[in-house]
Amino acid sequence: MGELGGFKKYQRKQEINTAVKDRIQNFKEFTSPLPTEEQQKQGSRCMDCGIPFCHSGCPLGNLIPDFNDRVHRGEWKKALEILHSTNNFPEFTGRLCPAPCEKACVLGIIDEPVSIENIEKYIVEKGFEKGWIKPKLPSYRSGKTVAVVGSGPAGLAAAQQLNRAGHIVTVFEREDKIGGLLRYGIPNFKLEKEIIDRRIAILEAEGIVFKTNANIGVNVSVDKLKEFDAVVLCGGATQARSLPIPGIDAKGVHQAMDFLTKQTKALFDTSLEKEIINAKGKNVIVIGGGDTGSDCIGTSNRHGAKSVTNFEIMPKPPKVRSEKTPWPFWPLQLKTSSSHEEGCDRNWLINTKEFIKNEKGKLTGLKTVEVEWKIIPGQRPQLIEKEGSEKTWPCDLVFLALGFTGPEKTLPEQLGLKLDRRTNIQADTFTYETNVPGIFTAGDMRRGQSLIVWAISEGRQAAHHVDAYLMGSSSLPLKDTNDLLSA
Length: 487
Ligand SMILES: Cc1cc2nc3c(=O)[nH]c(=O)nc-3n(C[C@H](O)[C@H](O)[C@H](O)COP(=O)(O)OP(=O)(O)OC[C@H]3O[C@@H](n4cnc5c(N)ncnc54)[C@H](O)[C@@H]3O)c2cc1C
Ligand code: SF4
Hints:
Layout: H1 6-9, E1 16-17, H2 20-23, E2 31-32, H3 36-44, H4 53-57, H5 64-73, H6 76-84, H7 90-96, H8 100-104, H9 116-129, E3 145-149, H10 153-164, E4 168-172, H11 181-184, H12 194-206, E5 209-211, E6 230-233, E7 253-255, H13 256-268, E8 283-287, H14 291-303, E9 307-312, H15 338-341, E10 345-348, E11 350-357, E12 363-374, E13 382-385, E14 391-394, E15 397-400, H16 410-415, E16 439-441, H17 444-447, H18 452-471
Helix pairs in contact: 3-5, 5-6, 5-9, 6-9, 7-9, 10-18, 13-14
């Protein structure tokens, strides 16, 4: 272990965000790293706990105290090896993960937890900067072929693991570029797309074949999949929830993903700029308080919206951990993202009743009512409207960020796949195999809209079982997920 008691000497420090007024002028990432010496001090804050709860908090089982120690010693290359042994893409999680590991960190009981996510990002960025991250080709080829459908983090992790096991892997993606929600869902200011491109270049050099504009079940027949020895479906959970209330057809009401995707595409193809849903000078309301809603707020502010208001139907979470989610569990706690900090009026316990439109069908306002949740033991919580609390909010644009109801159904229908009760693709909880032998599924398509870290974890787990299905056994790593603390 590095410096004993580093946590007593050094306070938690994280990379610095550019000032709001400057960062909302463009769609670039806006953080500056700490000096290397400071990064190493942050590594030394780790206590190398006898029982490292951070492991259980991380869906990938990252070997956190081991890489913290190496960082502290300045052994960055070794730290990278340790990090890569459990996480194929730390450059995504190091930027975007809500870091359940930090919520489970033992130091968090008495002090600020170790800045694990930032350390992860520093390690992988140093790896790219120094040229340590190189394609690793398998030492032999098995002769078996695998099709991966969908190129989000789950599909990419599955593809890399299966390629490492020597199989010939083809990834089919319906979009024009690889990356799934990392590419066209998550805005550039959270993840610049060059970060994806440099990783894809490595995967291609390792021998993975990528086919874009290939929508399986639509412009490529599902019969194509029969040419492969195994299939891994990683198509995500992209079916957006709507709000079936009067006025939903008003001009100015949009699904959040429509707004976000068009904006990101236009950054890379100026001919698409006219397609953007422009929030400049508009009064914007974002309905939904999750990551997608937060990204709409950040994007609206970058457009120069006149006002940005956010509604959430749930109560405002407490600023500190609630008693129901004590350490080391994932806390119910108020989350203030960098986009929230950039400016928005946040409102909780608000239900939307009607979109108001003028004679031309254009949105002019939104009717809401305040609500409360009545808890009756043994029953589902009931939503009660507060009498006399109706209000009309003038607005020009509304973005619906209400979550996702599961994967699109074309593919499962055509392949004869069963769905679970949440309408995700049903698969064995251990092997990830669907009801059709040889067809596996991972990521959001199996678990519903979730997190990048879970998608990578599922892609890795599925790869192990696909390899075992093809070869009888597998030496690809498998994580024991029974000890997980995070949802
Ligand atoms: C706006 C937004 C912001 C988010 N922010 C965060 C965040 O900050 N941190 C975090 O951890 N998570 C975040 N998430 C969640 C995270 O992005 C997802 O959990 C993750 O991307 C899921 O990965 P996946 O590989 O399972 O699916 P996806 O990333 O959804 O990828 C699925 C891919 O499959 C393709 N596909 C689907 N059907 C077919 C077909 N028939 N043929 C070919 N291709 C097909 C799709 O085009 C897509 O590219 C966010 C989600 C959204 C919507
Ligand atoms: S729980 Fe925190 S302090 Fe303990 S080993 Fe993990 S990162 Fe280090």
